[in-house]
Amino acid sequence: MDHSKEVTQLVGQLGSLVKEAGYDEIYGYQIDPTGEFYDDATIEKLVYKLLKAYKFELQDTKKHIIEILKWRRKFDPLSAAFLEKHAPKFDKIGALTLNPDGASGQKVVTWNFYGTIDDPQDVFGHVNEFIRWRVGLMEQALNMLDLNDADNDYMVQVHDYKGASLFSMTGDAKKASTSIIRLFGDYYPEVLSKKFFVNVPALMSFLFNAFKSFVAEATRRKLVMMRNGSELSEYLKGSGVPKIYGGSSGKPLDELKLVFDKSKIKLPAYVSYLLETKIANQVD
Fold this sequence. Notes:
Blueprint: H1 4-12, H2 14-21, E1 25-26, E2 29-30, H3 40-53, H4 58-75, H5 77-82, E3 94-98, E4 108-113, H6 120-124, H7 127-142, E5 155-160, H8 171-187, E6 192-198, H9 202-212, H10 217-220, E7 223-225, H11 253-256, H12 269-283
Parallel strand pairs: 4-5, 5-6, 6-7
Antiparallel strand pairs: 1-2, 3-4
Catalytic activity: a 1,2-diacyl-sn-glycero-3-phospho-(1D-myo-inositol)(in) = a 1,2-diacyl-sn-glycero-3-phospho-(1D-myo-inositol)(out)
Protein name: Phosphatidylinositol transfer protein SFH5
GO cellular component, one term: endoplasmic reticulum membrane
């Protein structure tokens, strides 16, 4: 179905939404039509994504855009991603890789490792610290997408439960997980092509299947669960798939992890401008 009418209508109202929210950036792109970094073609694709997330209901989409803008103004996810220093304890529970020749929506991959957490209290005991780190990782991945490239306008998430136990799910861990799930659902719509759950223990598999029955069909189609991590290569194609997950390149995950470097990754121009402005203001 052609939704060009809804896209045109919403693009025409972005200025008023920006004014109401007091902020003009989503996913690293300036959405103020009068702004120096505004790009018509890119914003049309972003607007289409947002409309798709909310079933092309114009009023509902506008409401959510305002909420997203206000949250980004307050939380400042770009700082969490590119300016803040996060504790080394997070290094082994999350990663970002680039799968350069992956299939559509399989180039940028974020990884979460639940079995590597030695002390759940140390990781999840300070929920806000964990959330800022996890949002930062999401923003880094998001800024590697290209909305003008149909093969790279979505990302993949992998949740590895190897070594994890239900007993490690403390109250703080559940609170942090619930907060992140809600936050991503509210403020990062239509960015995932698939979410893989690998090395899932038998009991967790039962709980996962029960959980799937309660989510919307569109979301359910994006969730894939498997008992053995090596099966991932049946779904996630490309040379950037680590050997331990059945990848053909033979490279271990540690060699494929991307140490994010703004000098090596081309960020959207508006992100670079906002970061430079923040740094300059901090110096002043």
